[in-house]
């Protein structure tokens, strides 16, 4: 396991010990980190690991000549060709021939005492141990592999402090940890480079150290459906801010959306439909559940009826019809639409979207009103200058303390114009198989976006990359 300082290697090593502690006795050896520091950060270590330090205790004779034979690599390092290494013992004093390798000898004795049971040995790091005894990493690693892995049948996890590939050929598995920047934000990634005899279905994982532990995130699911669709449980306002229907997103936005605000949600390349649809559904469902009116232009040119079908699984159909208006071009309507359909000409957004008309159509609803627009649909109707056609409407939304949310795909030409006006600007991007969310305004760290059932609001979980 290799990587630069602070990439998460020690945390991964200790979690490996924790996971395997029920089936293997574990030995953890660290040269650079003190016991006190480790125990304070990982309180469970005391019960599940043995920490090896330099000691003058005598070797166990439990396995006699058999263990001595298995120490041939250690004997070579000490400069002694044939064990035993001690030639005289007077009282409590042992006179040893060869180089003093105290920490390694204690490590060997601990494993020998546990025989014939298998052990898990974690050496953090092999670089520090090699430096201490003035050996090369490859020589020390080869010795431990020959004695402890082949001789004693133990498993060994070596931690390297660099990303050099020079020693990769010696291991059965290789994991590389990196810590990089993504638009001035921290991003952590682990890559499985080698896993002998195993199929690597997902080689790279974004991960976080949130809570002092490693949590990895896999490829985004193609679909997400609750086992049993529930009636929407709304999230109430937080002081003067209005919930967007996603609890974790509200926390990121200091409580939710401001009244009289313009919010831009910028969708990057390859964002799954399930993610963007969940954001839309959460906004609409939460506003409707609180009795508030919604003007909704769905993404991907979804029809008014298909959009309605998606929402009425969670909110009563009558409430949806009373509180939601979905614009559709009059010349494309084959039948008279339901009360949720708002006929428009589709020639000019300035003419089609008049604030007073929206308020009149939603006169039985509570305020603030939500305007949610997918700009791929808007641009297909009104052209690339649609944002300019909406300037007066946006001004009236703000003046009347409404809430405007624009969702723009990568192909939209309106993103920059709306970003100039936005009081809140969020970005959704896909890195590998993981969806990330972060705020440009307000500026936030990266969060991974995953589906997880919630007691209230939508089923989206945000985890910070720490």
Structure at a glance:
This protein is an alpha/beta fold and 466 residues long. It folds into two domains: 2-217, P-loop containing nucleotide triphosphate hydrolases (Rossmann fold); 241-464, P-loop containing nucleotide triphosphate hydrolases (Rossmann fold, 3-Layer(aba) Sandwich), CATH 3.40.50. The chain contains 18 helices and 23 strands.
Please provide a written account of the structure.
- By secondary structure, the chain is of the alpha/beta class.
- The protein has two domains: 216 residues, Rossmann fold (3-Layer(aba) Sandwich), CATH 3.40.50.300; 224 residues, Rossmann fold (3-Layer(aba) Sandwich).
- It contains 18 helices and 23 strands.
- Strands 17-16-15-18-19-14-20-21-22-23 form a ten-stranded mixed beta sheet, sandwiched between helices.
- A hairpin with a 4-residue loop joins β8 and β9.
- The longest helix has 17 residues.
- The radius of gyration is 31 Å and the shape is elongated.
- About 7% of the residues have low confidence.
CATH superfamily of the largest domain: P-loop containing nucleotide triphosphate hydrolases
- State the secondary-structure class: alpha/beta
CATH architect. name of the largest domain: 3-Layer(aba) Sandwich
The count of DSSP E runs of length 2 or more, i.e. the number of strands, is 23
Q: What topology does this entry show?
A:
Elements: E1 2-3, H1 9-20, E2 25-30, H2 35-41, H3 45-48, E3 50-51, H4 64-70, H5 72-78, E4 86-90, E5 93-96, H6 102-114, E6 119-124, H7 126-133, H8 137-151, E7 155-159, E8 173-181, E9 186-195, E10 204-208, E11 215-217, E12 241-242, H9 247-252, E13 257-258, E14 261-267, H10 273-289, E15 292-297, H11 304-311, H12 317-323, E16 324-329, E17 341-344, H13 349-352, H14 355-361, E18 366-374, H15 375-382, H16 386-389, H17 391-399, E19 403-408, H18 415-421, E20 424-431, E21 434-441, E22 447-451, E23 460-464
Parallel strand pairs: 1-8, 2-3, 2-6, 6-7, 14-19, 14-20, 15-16, 15-18, 16-17, 18-19
Antiparallel strand pairs: 4-5, 8-9, 9-10, 10-11, 12-13, 20-21, 21-22, 22-23
Helix pairs in contact: 5-8
């Amino acid at each position: 396991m290799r990587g630069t300082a602070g990439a998460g290697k020690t945390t991964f090593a200790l979690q490996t010990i924790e996971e395997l502690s029920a089936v293997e006795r574990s030995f953890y050896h660290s040269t650079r980190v003190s016991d006190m520091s480790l125990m304070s950060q990982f309180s469970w270590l005391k019960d599940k690991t043995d920490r090896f330090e330099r000691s003058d205790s005598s070797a166990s004779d439990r396995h006699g000549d058999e263990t001595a034979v298995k120490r041939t690599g250690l004997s070579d390092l000490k400069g002694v060709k044939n064990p035993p290494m001690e030639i005289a013992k007077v009282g409590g004093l042992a006179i040893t021939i060869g180089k003093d390798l105290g920490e390694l000898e204690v490590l060997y004795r601990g494993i020998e005492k546990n025989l014939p049971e298998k052990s898990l040995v974690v050496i953090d790091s092999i670089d520090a141990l090699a430096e201490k005894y003035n050996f090369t990493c490859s020589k020390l690693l080869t010795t431990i592999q020959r004695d402890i892995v082949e001789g004693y049948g133990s498993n060994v996890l070596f931690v390297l402090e660099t990303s050099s590939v020079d020693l990769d050929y010696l291991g059965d598995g290789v994991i590389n940890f990196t810590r990089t920047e993504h638009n001035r934000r921290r991003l952590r990634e682990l890559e499985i480079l080698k896993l002998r005899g195993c199929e690597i279905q997902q080689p790279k994982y974004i991960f976080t150290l949130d809570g002092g532990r490693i949590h990895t995130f896999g490829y985004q699911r193609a679909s997400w459906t609750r086992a049993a669709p529930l009636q929407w449980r709304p999230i109430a306002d937080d002081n003067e801010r209005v919930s967007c229907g996603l609890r974790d997103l509200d926390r990121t936005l200091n409580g939710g959306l401001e009244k009289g605000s313009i919010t831009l949600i910028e969708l990057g390349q390859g964002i799954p439909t399930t993610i963007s649809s969940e954001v839309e559904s959460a906004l609409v469902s939460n506003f409707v559940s609180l009795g508030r009116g919604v003007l909704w232009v769905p993404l991907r040119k979804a029809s008014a009826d298909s959009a309605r079908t998606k929402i009425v699984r969670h909110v009563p159909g009558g409430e949806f019809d009373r509180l939601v208006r979905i614009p559709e071009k009059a010349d494309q309507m084959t039948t008279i639409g339901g009360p949720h359909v708002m006929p428009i000409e589709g020639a000019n957004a300035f003419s089609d979207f008049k604030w007073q008309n929206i308020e009149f159509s939603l006169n039985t609803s509570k305020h603030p009103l939500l305007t949610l627009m997918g700009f791929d649909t808007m641009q297909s109707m009104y052209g690339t200058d649609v944002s300019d056609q909406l300037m007066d409407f946006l001004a009236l939304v703000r003046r009347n303390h409404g809430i405007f949310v624009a969702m723009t795909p990568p192909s939209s030409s309106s993103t920059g114009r709306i970003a100039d006006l936005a009081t809140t600007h969020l970005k959704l991007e896909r890195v590998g198989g993981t969806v990330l969310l972060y705020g440009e305004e307000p500026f936030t760290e990266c969060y991974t976006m995953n589906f997880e059932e919630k007691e209230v609001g939508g089923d989206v979980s945000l985890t910070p990359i720490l």
